Amino acid sequence: MTSLRLCHKCFIVLSNTRTKQYQLIKICGKVLQNNPRSCQNSIATQSSRFNSTSTADSPNAHTTIDQDEHHKFTKLASHWWDEKGEFYALHSMNRLRIPLIRDAFVDASDKESKIFPLKDKLILDVGSGGGIIAEPLARLGATVTGIDMVEENVRIAQTHISQDPEISGHVNYIHGAVEDLPEEGKFDAVVASEVVEHVSDVDMFISSCCKLIKPGGYFFLTTLNKTYASYLLAVLGAEHLLRIVPPGTHDWNKFIPPEDLQLSLEQNGMTVRLLHGMCYNPVINRWSWISNTDINYAMYAVKSTQSIHSHDTIEQTDY
Questions:
Q1: What is the CA radius of gyration of the chain?
Q2: Does 86 count as an annotated binding residue?
Q3: DSSP letter string over 18-55?
Q4: At 123, which helix (H) or strand (E)?
Q5: Where does S-adenosyl-L-methionine bind (predicted)?
Q6: What is the pTM of this model?
Q7: What is the pLDDT of residues 3-49, one digit of tens each?
Q8: 23/46 Cα distance (integer angstroms)
Q9: Is 239 annotated as a binding residue?
Q10: 127 is in an annotated binding site
Q11: Residue 193 assigned as binding residue
């Protein structure tokens, strides 16, 4: 391991940019190795760029927040609890994703008999929006932390949960990015539903989420596959023809194939257990499980307590 010598200027920069330390150390170390006398001038240029705005407001190599996505969802924040508005398909998706999360924790023989099957489970909802996943999980007994990049989303979620005293004490919302959370190995599960396709750095996002999961804990994801079918139906069809979601909601270039998502999960100590295709019928506003994963799919993985073989295959099954 190479030790780095930091000049006084670099020390000041590092002490004032907690979330940028790694990048600034790399810059400083490279400068010092090449020309120790150039350290102060070079680092000053970099520090002025990194310190100009906060992490939540400025896209850079050390945040998963995409600024365009941030602006997009800020405009939609007031619609989260309008079940006939822009997010009505996401409300309908709860009929699939909430039982998927519940059943991962509860044996089939017990799930109907338990009133609070997720009692004592700590769950992190990443990209929590208005709280449409966090609230039903709390009703099943879970203690939920929701984190979202959009401050207005957090305000909407907090206002809505305050109207339900039975679960308001079991849900907490945070404004920020998942990579800024310090609680490594804290959560029994992390949920990132319809989020991966909106982040700026998928690998960093997955790594940040996995670090927060306890050994033996779960990571639940739903997202879109990168296929011609997903472009035709999820982008052209859903956004421009049927107007299920507003035009511009999705960027097809950011969709991710399940095998790529699996690889990223395995590289972070996770074993993928289940993969389900998901099909949406806009006529009856209903989602169903299918074997085909060409468009929407759900996946969950378990954090291993031992080494993972990189060539394990995904178990695909109808739900």
A1: 21
A2: no
A3: GGGHHHHHHHHHHHHHH-GGGHHHHHHHHHHHHTSS-T
A4: strand 122-126
A5: 97, 127, 148, 193
A6: 0.75
A7: 333 333 333 333 333 333 333 333 343 333 334 333 433 333 333 33
A8: 10
A9: no
A10: yes
A11: yes
